[in-house]
Amino acid sequence: MTVVGLGLMGRALAAAFLRDGHPTTVWNRTPAKAGPLVAQGAEPAHSLRGAVAASPLVVVCVSDYAAVRGLLDLLGDLLHDRVLVNLTSGTSDQARETAERVARRGGAYLDGAVMAVPRAIGTADAVVLHSGPRWAFEAHEPVLRVLGAGTTYLGEDHGLSSLHDAALLGLMWSVVNGFLQGSALLGTAGVDAAAFTPFAGTLLATAADWLPTYARQVDDGAYPPFDATLDTQLAAIEHLVRESESLGVNAELPRLFRALADRAVAAGHGGSSYAAVVEQFRDPSEVRP
Ligand code: NAP
Q1: pTM as predicted
Q2: Strand positions, DSSP E, 99-243
Q3: Residue 117 Cα: closest atom of ligand 1
Q4: Closest ligand 1 atom, residue 62 Cα
Q5: How far is the CA of 89 from the centre of ligand 1 (A)?
Q6: 67-83 pLDDT tens trace
Q7: Separation CA 223–CA 280 (nearest Å)
C-alpha cells in the first residue's frame, strides 16, 4: 500500500505495515522524513501522483482536512479504482464532504479515526475506527488490521468515525478535567494528586460499571432511578460547588454540572436517574451556570 503523510502518526502507520511484511510506498511533502522508513524497506515515491499510482490502497494521515483537500486537488482522476483511507482527524461533516470529493474522482473512500498514540500503532492497544463502504473495508481488512487489534468497522456513513472520535475525546476531557479539579480541591489541604489517584481509579472503574444501565435508559428515553435520584445528586453537586467556592478553587466545572442538573430537575426529572441529563445535552441552547 501507499502511505501519504509521514508526520509522527504517518511514520508509525508506515512502520507497522513494513514490520508486518507489506510492500509500502511512502510520500511526504517534506521528503527527508521518508529516510528512516526507506531504511526499513519502504519504497520512496518522488511525487504524490507517483505514490497514489503505486498502490490500490492509499492511507493518508496529514495535519487536517484542508491539507487533505489540497492533496486531492493535485490528484485529478488518479484516484479512479483506488481505495483512499483517510486517518486525518476532523469532523463528521469534513469526512462526508471528502467522501463526495473522492467519489467525484472515481475513488472509494473510508474515513478513519486513530484512537491511539503513534507508539501504540500495530499493538493490541491501538483502536482504529473506519466508516464508509463495507466492501472497501472488507477488501483491505487484513492489512488495515495490522494497525491495531482494535481496528473496527462502524458502518456505511462516512461521518461515523469522526463522530466516535469526538464522543470519545469529550469523555476523555471530562474525566481528566474532573480529576484535575479534584486535585486542585485536595491540594488546598496539602493532599497531593498522587494520593488522590487510587481513589480516582476506583471511582472510574465503578462509573464504567454504571454505563450499560445508563446506556439502556438513554436509548429507551426512560430513566427510573436505579441508584440515587437526580434530586439527591443535585444536593451532592451543590456541596461540590460550595466546597470549591469557599476554598478558592475554580468552580466553573461544578457550576456547569449544577446548571445541567437544575434544568433536568426543572423539566420534571427530580425523581429520575442521572441519565435524564442526556436531554439537556440534546438541547443546543446554552446552559448558564
Ligand atoms: P504531524 O507530526 O504534525 O505531521 C503532520 C503531517 O501532515 C506531516 O507529514 C506534514 O508534512 C503533513 N502536512 C501538513 N500540511 C500539509 C499540506 N498542506 N500538504 C501536505 N502535507 C501536509 O502530525 P501527526 O501527529 O502525524 O498527526 C497527523 C494526524 O493524525 C492529525 O490529524 C492528528 O490529529 C491525527 N492523530 C495523531 C495522533 C498523535 O498522537 N500524533 C493521535 C491520533 C490522531 P510535512 O512533514 O511536510 O510538514
Answers
A1: 0.93
A2: 108-115, 127-131, 152-155
A3: 40
A4: 7
A5: 9
A6: 999 999 999 889 999 99
A7: 14
